[in-house]
Known about the structure:
By secondary structure, the protein is mainly beta. The chain contains seven helices and 31 strands. It has helices at 3-12, 29-34, 40-45, 55-58, 65-68, 72-77, 482-486; strands at residues 24-26, 82-83, 99-100, 105-108, 114-117, 124-126, 133-138, 142-144, 175-184, 187-196, 204-207, 219-231, 236-243, 246-247, 258-266, 274-280, 287-300, 319-321, 325-326, 328-329, 341-349, 364-370, 377-383, 388-395, 398-399, 403-405, 416-424, 429-434, 437-438, 453-456, 467-475. The strands form eight sheets. It has a seven-stranded antiparallel sheet with strand order 6-7-31-21-27-28-29. Strands 20, 22, 23, 24, 25, 26 and 30 form a seven-stranded antiparallel sheet that branches. The chain has a five-stranded antiparallel sheet with strand order 9-10-17-12-15, with no helix packed on it. A hairpin with a 2-residue loop joins strand 9 and strand 10 (187-196).
Amino acid sequence: MADADRLRLAARVPADYNGFGYAPILADDMRAVAGVGTDIAAALETSNLNVGLADADRLQAGVDRAAAAASATLAAAIVPASADRTVGRRVNDAAQWPIIRATPAWGINSAGNLDEVAADSPRWDFDPLTLAPLGLAFAPARTNSITNPRAEGAVAGTPGTAPTGWGSRPSGVPNTEVIGSTTRRGVPGVLVRFWGVPTSTGAQTWQLTSSVAHTVGQVLCSSIYVELVAGTTTNLGNFGVRNNLANDGGTAFTLGAFTRLSRLWTSTVSPATPGLRWSYNDTVTPVDFTIFVGAPSLEINVPYPSSPILPPVGTPGVSTRAQGICDIPIRNLGTRYNRRAGTIILDWNSQTGPFTSAADTDFMTLVSLGDLSVNEVMGLLINPAHGSVVFRRTVGGVSQTTAAINGVTPPAAGETIRCAFAWDIDAGLMQVAARGAVGTQLTGQTVLPIITHLMPGRYSTTRPLAGRIAGMEIRPAGFFGTSLATLT
């Protein structure tokens, strides 16, 4: 970036700018990026950097840029400090992130437990093990086709009765006991003990719902919470998610682990019968283990699993979670937003993974700006499986040239990656960055959509996000090339 460009950026940054959703803590980083130095006053005086800046731009934050340029101290003061984009920091408080969602939703609370969040309320997710904050959770509308994910109706006893609608327990050992329905770490489920000398080393299958009809060829996703509560894994083979003949034989759990297992596959048979599968190593060594099984789900025709979906207590049945919508009026951003030039930096925490589809339809929106219609919108989207991050625009209903970076390393489950996009219609520049690398810089880009709202997690009405926004920052100047890469 040329010195004149750096100074131009510095001259246009509002005085009261402090990012969006982050607290400024590192004083020198932003100034270094913007290129502010001891000779800024002289440089500004000998250049026409303020040419083309309207008085309203110069006074946007109550600071006269021309007056500020007369002093190196004042010039440095109008450049913001670096924002703290620490991974996992909450993006902001609920008042600044209004959520519209017609149904309750479930997420991991600060105690590491699954917790229900009321309709029209934001979901702040936390790591279930470390309790570190992961960010504001987003999820598309989804349906759980398992009718009794709360495991209601179980009757304690030896052998006892499995939850209503669940299949018979495997018969590969002589003794089974239903200890009863229970809740562990907020997850509703059932405790069952298996013990004795196995009578077979064949596959042990426990169906967790009745058959679910679907179209062969659709992608199905099963997710189940499991925990080895007591006993040992002696003589116990691989344990995992199963559906019909599609088995996940490579997923095992260990003593004490509380895990949510997920499996994606393309169906070759219908109906689906999701459940658990394990095996015994021999028919000589006794086994004795007690497992917790909870909140099973089956999502049909989806590219990735989402958060748990549960019906109300006492009303088993197929249940749906509505999409959460977050629309922030541009006026709420104040001087953080500059229509003509800006950079948005966003930390996205992957709720699920690995991703398997590279189809264009599987792009998810990190954040967009527009007028709430599909005709006027621009935004940053990601296809985790394909390793693509793109900056798309639609102006007057017409798609514009796309800025992109390909070959981005796909995120693992629970990983946070940083992406950014920048625009400057005076300079005609647009560019996208992710994981410290930038895509090809577009030139000659001088049109933007009508912008009235910031829309985290969706591209107007389409391409909803799954995962968490761990942090977001809006800078009222465009950064490009190495500067943009550095921000990610």
